[in-house]
C-alpha cells in the first residue's frame, strides 16, 4: 500500500511538472548595452537586439513562453521595428514585450532638433508680427526628411496654417454625374496662393465638395494670374465649394512662411533645409523633435493574393507600453481609399500595425500624440486582441480593421 502511495505521489509530481510552462525573460533598458546578456542586472540597450536574441532562441528549438521586459525611459526608433515569421512564438506560447513592473517605456520615432538660432534677417514673406520672434534650425538631408509633424516633448506643435478661403469653382450638377472628373484643379481667390519656390512642401487642407471629409493635398502648380492651382494627386471629390453650406472657410494653405503668425507655429522648407519655429516660451526648449517614420511597429507575415497560402505571425503581445511620435501620412497616386478616403487601404500609417498576424495582442498600452493612426490590422488578421488601451490625440484613425475585402478570403 505504501509503495502504491509513493508511486501515486510521484506520478502527480510529474504531472504538475509537465503542466508548468517554461518561461525565459530578457530585459531592456535605455542605459543597457547590447553587448550584455539581457538579464535584470545586465540589460540590453535596444529592442532590436532583444528581438534578434529571441529570434535565435526560437530558431534553436526553444518551446516555451518568452518575456521581454522594458525598463522605463524613451526608446528612439530610427526605423520601423519589424516582427516577421521568424519572430512567431513557439506553438501554443507567446512572446510578450511588456513594461517592467510599473515603469513607463516610451517608444517613439522622434529625433531631437538642436542648434537653434534666432532669425535676424527676415524673409519678405514673414509676417511683421512674427519678426523678432522666430528661430531657425538647419535640417540636414531635409529633402528626404520632409516631416509633417513637430513636437515639444510629446506635445504636437501646430504647423503654420493660412486664413481659410472658399474655392472659386462651383461643382456642376448633378454632382454624381461628374464624380470622377477633374479632381486636381482648385480655383482660388486672388492672393491666397502663390507659386512658392518650395511648392513641393506646401499642402492645402480642404473640404472637397462635401462636408463629411477633409483632404491634405500637395500642390504641383500654381497659376497666380488665372487663379488656378493643380494638386499632385486627386482629391476625394472635386475641389469645389462645399454643397449646401454657406461656409466662409473650407480650404487652407499650410507650411508657408506667410502663415507663420502665432506662437507655437512652425514651417519646414526642405529646399533650403530650414526649420522655422516661433516658440511660445520665447526660446526653443531642449525637447523639440520631429518623427522619422509613420509606423513604429510592424508585425508582418506572408500575405498572398490567392485564396490559400497566407502565413501569419503568431503569438506576439505588446503589454503596458507607450507608443507615440509618428509622422502624418502623405497620400500617393498608388493609394486606394476606404469609404470617402477616411483612410487608405493597406497603408503604413499607424503606430502599431498587424499585417498577416494571428493570436497577437495590444493590451494596457497608450497610443498617443502622433501625426498618424493608432493601430491597424490589415489583410490577414485573426484573433487579434486590442484591449484596455488608451488611444488619444492622433492625426488619424484610432483603430482600423481592414482585411482583403468582402468575399475575398475567410479572414
From TrEMBL:
Residues 132-279 form the GH141-like insertion domain. SUPFAM superfamilies: Pectin lyase-like (SSF51126). InterPro entries: GH141_ins, PbH1, Pectin_lyas_fold, Pectin_lyase_fold/virulence. Pfam families: GH141_M. This is GH141-like insertion domain-containing protein. It comes from marine metagenome.
